[in-house]
Amino acid sequence: MTNIKLLKNRNFALLSGANFINRLGDSIDAIALSWLTYQVTNSASIAALNFATNYIPTVFIQPFMGAFVAKHDKKHMMVIADAARALIVTLLAIAVITNTVNALMIIICTFLMSFFETLRLPASSAIIPEIIDKTEYKDAVSFNSSLSRITELIGTGIAGFIIGIFGMYSAIFIDAFSFLASAILLALMKTDEKISDTKENTIIQDLKDGFKYVSIQKDMLYIMVLTCISNALLTPFNALQSVFVDSYLHAGADILSIIGVFISLGALLGAMAYTKVSEKIKTKVGLLFIFPTGIIFYVGLLACGYFDNDLLLAIACAIVTFISGIFLGLVNCYVSVYMMVRCDKEYLSRVSSLQNSIAQAGIPILSFIISIVSNFLDVSWLFVLSVIIMVIVWIFTYKDKRRELICDQS
Fold it and tell me: How far is Cα 71 from Cα 126, in angstroms, rounded to an integer?
């Protein structure tokens, strides 16, 4: 009933619809680009390098974008970002069709798509308080998280089959269409945003104010650091998933789809269960699931390599990723809701940008390291090292008294 009430809000319904279509294309594209990069280059180093490139704008540009968005119409920023990404992906699809695609072109397109995403993300977060009441934040975040997982479930489920049956260019064209459709839906929103009149403040000054605000909110900063470490330690899989599936599991793009589908399915269940779970398990306890999620994921995938039968391999990958996905969905909701509830409305776009930037700061650094180390070390050993570090960090997190800074609210 709560979701029905939210969707009666025209602006929220259009925003959710745009996010659904957008995420559907992204889910297909995530597998398509990963597979395309490895097939074109046949190099784990280039795959890791391209993955690093994807996060450079997030880490270094997004904080400025958050301050920029705070001074501009958020709906217009999202429309511009999605339209630009539609054009970039279309050009890439044409290059695939004409057989002119190469590693440099993929890396450039990856960078540009990520650049425009840094414009859209803070605008998307900051516009929510403009279109719904604060009492609806928790339900809105849970709904959007569930919707995102449903979309990923569909997108990753069909991506491998689209690539296999219709070709790589088809998957990339679908992504381009999704960005265009998203831009159209966003343009139909009717908002009356209150843009700050403090024109004397520069973007740099606003960015400094955002850093100052976050530095004072020790609990928010602590969560950002935890997510930074967690995301960095998941980089070996995210950067080398195609390499892992091909060289370790000896499988094809269909297994990538299965992994993506069941992570999304589990995360959907976790997001749907969050409202009830959060009533019994407070945030400071819920955040302890961050590192066990990664441990279960890596250990499980490594164990899947011992299945020679294709069917058993698929079932094993599905079980491991489904269980990991449940914890992932819960943790994501804990973090998203906590940050939105704790952050003052006028700082939301800046804090959202800083959160994304800090949370992903370790990814490009570790990806560059992996691009070098992968020439000498097998991908499975990178997974093992990640597990060892996760266990150590988890123990320190459990004993860390700074966890008490986190308020008992979700």
Answer: 11
Place of tokens 């299945």: 307
Q: What are 222-241's pLDDT values in tens digits?
A: 888 888 888 888 888 888 88
CB neighbours of 289 closer than 8 A, spacing ≥ 6?
A: 327, 330, 331
**C-beta separation of 218 from 71 below 8 A:** no
> Which residues, in sequence order, are CB contacts of 372 under 8 Å at separation 6+?
45
Q: CA torsion sign, 267 to 268 to 269 to 272?
A: positive
Distance CA 287, CA 223 (A): 8
- The C-alpha angle 342, 346, 352, rounded to 5 degrees, equals 60
Work out the number of other CB atoms within 10 angstroms of the CB of residue 110. 23
- How many other C-beta atoms are found inside a 10 Å radius of the C-beta of residue 50? 25
Q: Please report which confidence band the pLDDT of residue 108 belongs to, taking 50, 70 and 90 as the band edges.
A: very high
- What is the Cα Rg of the chain in Å? 20
Structure tokens at 24: 């559907």
**Buried-state track 245-273, b at ≥16 Cβ within 10 A, e below 16:** bbebbebbbbbbbbbbbbbbbbbbbbbbb
* pLDDT per position as a tens digit, 141-161: 767 767 776 776 677 667 767
How far apart are alpha carbons 302 and 291 in whole angstroms?
A: 17
- Residue with token string 């997108």: 155
Q: Any residues with CB less than 8 A from the CB of 345 and at least 6 apart, and which?
A: 129
Domains of the chain: 11-190+202-405 (1.20.1250.20)
Angle, helix 62-70 to helix 103-131, in steps of 10 degrees: 40
